[in-house]
Amino acid sequence: MRWIRETGPVVGAITLALGVGAIVTALTGYSVPQVFRHLAVGAFGDWYRLAQTLTQATPIIFTSLSFLIAFRAGLFNIGAEGQLYMGAFFAAWAGFSFQLPPVLHPIVCLLFGAAAGAVWGFIPGWLRAKRGANEFVTTMMLSYVAINFTSWLVAPGGPFHGTAWANQTVRIATSAQFPRLLRGAQLSWGLIVGVLVAFLVWYLLFRTPRGYELRAVGQNPLAAEYGGINVTRNMILALTLAGALAGMGGAAETLGTHRRFIELFSPGYGWDGIAGGLIARAHPLGAILAAVMMGALRAGGQAVDRAGVAPADLAAVIQGLVILFVVAPELIRYFRRLVRRKKLGDIEL
Amino acid sequence: MKKLFALVLVVAFGLVTIGQDIPKIGLILATGGLGDRSFNDQSYWGAERAAQELAARYGVSVEEVFTYVEPRSIADYEAFQREFARSGEYTIIVCIGFDQAPVLAEVAPDYPDQKFVVIDAVAAADNVASIVFNDWEEAFLCGVVAGMMTKTGMVGVEGGMDIPLIHRFVEGFRQGAMWANPDISADDVLVRYVGAWNNPTLGKELALEMYQAGADIIYGAAGKSHLGVFAAAEENPDWWAIGTDVDQAWSAPEHADVIIASGLKRVDLAVYTEIMKAVEGTWGPGVISYGMVSDTGIGTGIAVGKQDIGDYISASYSEVEIPGEVMWKVVQAVFGILDGSIVIEHE
Questions:
Q1: B82/A185 CB distance under 8 A
Q2: CATH node for A2-348
Q3: Which of B88, B248, B98, B231 has its CA nearest to residue B161?
Q4: How far is A168 from chain B (nearest CA, A)?
């Protein structure tokens, strides 16, 4: 019953969003059945299309986990996009710099990606916990730093500009690549790693004392402090873990999907993670489903674009509506709780 | 019996017609995207012209024989290349832009029966035709016009990226300006790189910087970004611009009052030719070079002045009056390049 209560509104919101999307499509003069048929076929039509959906979903699993682990600790990680880029680049660096045996090499690369993302999460975590700097601002600003920094690294004149003029690194060693799951598709082991990591995050949050502490800090920092939990340390830990998760997402993109670091490779997977985490109601396993849904919208959108039945922008509008309808109520609820908590805090003080 | 025979004939003929494959063109544009009034748009026109002819030939709509996509990032190329190739629907897949080549070299061998074309770089695979242009030739001719027309003795060139492909434009332009005007030294040719093909705002800022430093004519070789050069030139009656790849006084008519000439790089011709070769069954893989001194002997030139002169100088829609001595110098340059008395350094 609880399951239905939790997912019911999400399904309702998606249906509503698709309905409004249909109206927008009709009003702009495009054929509703054609657009929606291509959207559906493009996302799930055959094995290849399904693989495309899952390819798009893979980084979103990681960024959703990144968002929700911070969210559980009462923090907003808006910077998954930048952490993703840091992870993607440093995984690539480990991929073309080291010579290691096959199974070990991608693991090392993944850890490099996680570490790079972790650093990019630790900085705002430390600033928040020790200096009170709003993580909303710091994570987002650091995102732009990461995106531009990695772009510079591979731009002409940068230290890791590849050999083929394009703004990308050289290809990573074959030993470092995630094997692809389907011939001719970009879907790779990254997906499986993502699902495994989602289970790990679930275990950490709900089955370990550490996870309990994180959640306690998120629910009521004052009470947690009173209960003997180190709030400062848990805040830093939450954002560091968030960064590591997004960094691993970037690493998965590098190791499986592109096999090199490409500047500006992400069409906004980090931002999708915010929506993904909220759609999943901050549940790690829900994040998998939410990511698949977002991936389906992206893959379907591409198909709509290619088939020429409507411009890609229209598909983006439908994607935006789904996110808006699903996420907006969740956000309103969150802010309401924040206001209420503030009032309670005033009384306590 | 006669009727039956006729019926069989009709059915058989019908089957033949149905069984006959209608060719289909797939076009993957570069990240600059449509609306650059230059490289990408021109590629599109080439494919569109082929599509219109094929649509008329087979009695179908243009949409049925032609699909194109505009990738937003280099990271999108592989997915699009695979999606087009995998569908098996396309007679030929045309990939625009040098940055598609590395990933195409990896993708193409997975689809050995699919024909690919890549423009501006070489992708070594058995089913790819790589089209390269002598970019330095158009740039040299533009340099000649700039060298003759400058009043300040200083000119500029704005490149999309600081890479060998664009260095060819820069070097060609510099040599052309110095060849035409002995008062111009290498230092009098300013160079700026935008770092992106689709950032006209930054393109305008960099152009203003060069104009304010004393250059009065700027040559743009930066895709959509150098639309900013034209916008900058509009701000002062003494500032002029030169376009690239297509007569931009025609493709960007609102700037015909500042664009004195444009380099020509007939990407449309190359795209059209490759498509038609694939349709007619005469297509083959390998490297094909276009330009004045090349395998094909065509494909580069300049749009300047009011009339076509030979194969390499076309009339321009520019509203700016070009003096006869400038035209004569351009003609001399063309002859010089063709007879080998002018050798343009480009590597």
A1: yes
A2: 1.10.3470
A3: B98
A4: 9
